[in-house]
Amino acid sequence: MTIHRPGRPEDLPPGEELWARWALLAAVEATTEEERRPSGHRTGRWIDDEGLHYDDSGCTWWTMSRMGGGRFVLYGEDESSGVKWYEPPIDMLAGGPDWLPYDELRDRLKGYELGCVYWYESGAWARAPYPGDLGDDGLDCGISGFADRDQVLGELSDRVDDSVGDSGDDSGGGSGGGLDADALLAAAEAHRLDPASLLERLRPLYADEPLDLPAVARALALAGITGRDPNEGAAP
């Protein structure tokens, strides 16, 4: 999937799919130790009560939150964004719906921490209008790793042992069932992933890296990609 510079709303996959891909990658990296760390002191990819997060401890940070009723908000910054430095200033919240987390977004704006804001409602992404000569808003560098399904699948494949429990059943409803990384990702995108089918196949990225399966299970449940309503517990 190609993300233009600056990004266009149509560059992004449906909100439910983007959420599921990001959530699955965050879940397989989850550990109890990191769960206990305050969000402001974490790096990498994770999920908490606010939503999904990505922070490379350097030039990019992003958050995606569920807002209820099939609505999502995506916001963050990559150093490639020219939005916050553009003159005259670009109103990143122009045209935004009334359900956006305005207190959070305005606080970020005041601190010059925000590079762009996208919102998803009724099956479509939207953002504020940009001037024609804006070079980039950072969406490509920040979110392409989640928007591009092949990239997500490649990362997930490194974490999944396809030799475990190969019974040839790819229904996604049983424990294991021969699911490969592609089938596991598809089940997550449909918000019907059976946690056991992932947990029994999960392997560490490095040989000396211990698996924390309870933390992975908790992250999957919090993400809402295991069969329950993906908007359960979200803001009204």
Structure at a glance:
With 236 residues, the chain is of the alpha+beta class.
Structure description:
The chain is an alpha+beta fold and 236 residues long. Helix content is 30%, strand content 16%. It contains eight helices and six strands, in the order ααββββαββααααα. The protein has helices spanning 15-28, 32-35, 102-110, 139-147, 149-157, 181-189, 195-199, 213-223, and strands at residues 44-48, 51-55, 60-68, 71-78, 116-121, 124-127. The protein has a six-stranded antiparallel beta sheet. Strand 2 (51-55) and strand 3 (60-68) form a beta hairpin. The longest helix has 14 residues, at 15-28. The two termini are 32 Å apart.
